[in-house]
Structures are given as C-alpha cells and as structure tokens.
Amino acid sequence: MTPIFPLRRTRRAFPAASEHGEATTPVDRSAAPTWEGRPLARPEEDVEDQGLSFDIGTLVSRRGAIGVIGAGSAAAVLAACSSGTGATDGTTGASASDAGGAEATASSSALGEEMPTETAGPYPGDGSNGADVLEISGVERSDITTSIDTGTVAAGAPLTLTMNIIDMVQDDGPMTGAAVYVWHCDAHGEYSMYSEAIADETYLRGVQVVGEDGTVTFTTIFPACYSGRWPHIHFEVFPDIASITDAGNAILTSQIALPEDVAETVYSDAEYDGSADNLSQVSLESDNVFSDGWDLQLAEVTGDMSTGFALSIDVPIDTSTAQQAAAAPAGGGGDMPPAGAMPSDGGGEPPAGGPGSAASGDGS
After folding, report:
1. Could you tell me which residues are beta bridge partners of residue 132?
2. CA distance linking residue 183 with residue 220, whole number of Å
3. How crowded is residue 266: how many other Cβ atoms within 10 Å of its Cβ?
4. Cross-strand bridge partners of residue 150
5. Residue 325 banded pLDDT, cuts 50, 70, 90
6. Going by DSSP bridges, is the β-strand pair 308-317/158-167 parallel, antiparallel, or unpaired?
C-alpha cells in the first residue's frame, strides 16, 4: 500500500558497542569502502551519515564547482552549519543536525503528529465493560461481516478497510506484529453483542496482525449513521496479538471518520433507512468526538455501490509516550447505546430508537 504520507527509510541498526571499557577492533581505513572513488570516513555507516565534511566534498566534486564556490564559500557553509543558531549538545557541543548525533525520535518524524486518542465508546466488546469478543477463538480474521459462532451475515454496502500502522519512533516504519482490533455498527446503527436484537452476534468485530508492509485489511460493510454521531469506525492497536486479552494493553484507541459525500451515496440505499436523516442533522464540527479536529482521522474512500468501497488511512503512533485517556462522549445521544443495549459503566440509560430517531432531551 502506498501511504498517504511519505514514509522515511527504515532505521538502521546501531553498530555494536563495547562494554566496561573493552577495546573494539580498529577499522582498517586502507581497506575501507569507497563512494564515487572517495574512501568513506565512517565505513560502518550509510553514505548519508559520513559527516558534514564528506557531504561538502561530495557537493563540490559533483558540481565541479571549486572555482565557483571557492574555499571561502565552503568555509561559510561549514560555519553556518556549526553556528550558534543550531541546537547543540550541552556536553559535546555537537550540532543536533549532525548525522552522527542521536537517532530520530517522534519529534522529528516526517509525519509530525500522532493519530488522536478517542473514546472507545460504550460498545467496545474488549472486556472493558463486560462483553469481550477478544477472548473468543476466531476473532483474528480479515472478513468481519459474519458472526464467529452463528455465521449470521451483516447486510450493507461492501467496504474494504485498509489501515497503515506507522511507528513514528522507528523512523515512521511499519509497526509489524502489532494487533489491530476494529469494530463498528451495522447498517441499522446497532452494535453486535450490545443491541438487544443482535446481542448474540459478533459480526463487524475482528483483529488483524500488522504485516511486513505495515498494513491490516478488513472486509466489512459501510456503517450506518445513528442519531447524534458522525459515521465512524472504532479501532484499538495493541503491541502484539498476545496483548489483546486485556484492553488496558492498547497503545492507541481511536476512531475513523467517513467522508460525507460517500456516506450520502451509501445512505440512499434502503438498507440504511434513517441514516440519511441522521447525517443531515450532524456535522464533523458538531460531532462530540471529531469536533476538536479530524484531519488525521478522515479516511480516503473510493468506489461505488455496484463494486463496493475501499477505505485507506494512515495511523501514526508515537510509542515513546503513553496514550492519553480520552473523555467519554458528552450527552445529546452521542455514543450512547441504541435501544436494548447494555449501557457502559457510567453510561446512563439507553436512548430510545435507532437511526432516524431524535436523541432524548436529557442527553441519554
């Protein structure tokens, strides 16, 4: 998958370090590898990490510009790079921009910003409020349109969901081996394991492990728009598949927002009765989850009703920091259980009605 954001090169391994002052084997410079006929100053490092002097020499030799740039200009470049305007290490005085310095962290990531943490809502099914699909054999699957035990199929517009899970600390590389749990409502705005009519179903819930390319892919349906919420998909990312049995192990809990134009197309289908009305009464600006910003959470969706839809989104995660707990949704019917659902801890009474119904005035 080609990410929406460009990925940086994979972080190289650190060279072996000696311990307790033990001597290391000296490098034989006479046999050092070369690049463009010039010996590498740091043969154990990549070409781009040979140091400033080597880079200046490369620039000059490539352009044949000794006479144009001149020794004075080269000196000026060196002076500018080592001037007091750049950040320095308080101990060594080395410039922070020197390639020989510390490895890149999330603060210097090409992506620059982590996917926001959001509430899991009252229907996570991850054991945090009772219902737990993550302990059921068979939850690791790519096709989540059917229930694990009953085989019941969720009707709706076909959707292929592809998520690119990015480790910002590891030079924005793929977070291979992480486990991604996805869940969302059906075409009627109801959640399996919670809504009374489908309390015995487990469809539209599943886990995939991130592959070498950094992606996970789920076959699902386009979710409905129920009263008070913008159409969305929930997900949690865990360090590995062994971690999913405890919701507290999640390193990111968030939500994906679906584009309005695609939602309007889908909700014209009779299967999504009520969703068009609900969508007309909410906006990203008024939604109690996305209203504080949705740039990183708004997915790219292509396709049509006849061939199905494909969703893709990048999910940058800063593993050097603990995720901040998101506040539970406010009132106004936001993410409260549909009729007959099990309310979450502190969630209050379930509201009446599903898609197309108005939220109760007391915010339940």
Report:
1. 126
2. 10
3. 27
4. none
5. low
6. parallel
Signed CA dihedral, 192, 193, 195, 201: sign only: positive
Q: What is the DSSP letter of 115?
A: P
Name the packing angle between helices 66-81 and 52-63 (round to 10°): 160
* Residue at 346: amino acid letter: G
Q: Where are the beta strands (DSSP E) in the chain?
A: 34-35, 38-39, 158-167, 173-174, 179-183, 205-209, 215-221, 232-238, 252-257, 300-304, 308-317
Q: Give the C-alpha separation, 273 to 264, whole Å.
A: 12
What does the block give as tokens for 64?
A: 């044949």
Q: What is the predicted pLDDT for the residue at 323? A: 74
Please enumerate in sequence order all residues whose Cβ is within 8 A of that of 192, keeping only pairs 6 or more positions apart, or say none: 125, 147, 154, 186, 198, 199, 201, 202, 203, 204, 205
Alpha-carbon distance 158 to 266, whole Å? Answer: 10
The residue length of the chain stands at: 364
| CA–CA distance, 122 with 229 (Å, rounded to integer) | 13
- State how far the Cα of 324 lies from the Cα of 20, in Å rounded to an integer: 39
- What are the backbone dihedrals phi and psi of residue 291, each rounded to the nearest 5 degrees, phi first? -65, -20
CA 270 to chain centroid: 33
| Token reading at 272 | 């999504």
Tens of pLDDT, residues 201-256: 999 999 999 999 999 999 999 999 999 999 999 999 999 999 999 999 999 999 99
- Is residue 118 within 8 A of residue 326, CB to CB? The reply is yes
Are 203 and 192 in contact, with CB atoms under 8 Å apart? yes
> How far is the C-alpha of 270 from the C-alpha of 256, rounded, in Å?
24
Amino acid at 55: D
Q: What totals of helices (H) and strands (E) does the chain contain, helices first?
A: 4, 11
DSSP 193-240: TTSGGGTT---SEEEEE--TTSEEEEEEEPPP--TTS-SEEEEEEESS
pLDDT at residue 51, as a whole number: 58
